[in-house]
Amino acid sequence: MAPGPALPPAALSVHREATVVDLHNDLMLEVQAAKRDITIRSSAGHADLPRLREGGVDGQCFALFVHPKEADRGFARVTELLDAFDRLAAANDAVLGRVTSVAEIERLQQAGRLAVVLAIENGSALGGDLYHLDAVYERGVRMMSLTWNNSNGLADGAMESRHGGLTPLGRRVLNRMQDLAMVVDVSHLSEKSFWDTLAVTQGPIVATHSNAAALTPHPRNLNDEQLRVMARRGGVVGVNFYPTFTGGPALSRILDHVAYMSKVMGPDHVALGSDFDGFDGRVSDLEDVARLPNLTAGLLARGFDARTVTQILGGNALRVFREVWGR
């Protein structure tokens, strides 16, 4: 991939000084399946450890995704993914580490290591057993979404309505997540499940990788009412880079969603949730994570000031983590 045009020094300075946090990346699927060695820089996919470093990413949420086809062995599947991460971390301790607090994120950033937050995508990972939530918590998981696109035993997903929102087990899972100070992720929920989740929980919640439905109508995106209530609760929405959800494979479309959501929610409630390695194809001017400084330059060019850009790049996500985790 040819290098892009040189960025303005001011943009590079803002990007370097920010604590950059991405709320959603599916790279662990590649790691567990041994499809490629992510310790080596390549042009495959959107990310690997060298490109994450090049892109200035300090904190990365690695999704532990359980596909609905594997729901009947969900806990075994998430255990495989956790085991794969543990092997990766043990072999690359100088490069990355699992974190469960903002203090640890800051410590690893200062040491030049990638801070990894483990997050379950699809509560089918629990295998219908509430006690499995404590088990994954003990292994370092600190964030979870109840569903993927499909409905499961916890709630309805964005693309399937079966239960009419949360199930009784879904409510118990949310209650236990709050007891454990885990971050609740509402991406992939149906709208009814979203509102049920708001009614059951307290404090800030996140949508790790969702966009504005007003700009790109899609069941996976959030309407203005949903965006506003998340802001009132102190939460954040991570802007997804997937072209289907932005309206086209261009950085300009991502910037459009950041600008719109900042207007509706306030910029202190907008974050990054790239979904890199969770979709095929490329975004022009943001082809992979190494090009992330282009996003910073684009935000500054759109009129966002340096402080606001720094918050969107990671400060807003860190604020929510600190409030939920307590440290």
UniProtKB/TrEMBL annotation:
GO annotation, biological process: proteolysis
Organism, as annotated: Candidatus Segetimicrobium genomatis
Source domain of life: Bacteria
This protein's name: Membrane dipeptidase
GO MF assignments: metallodipeptidase activity
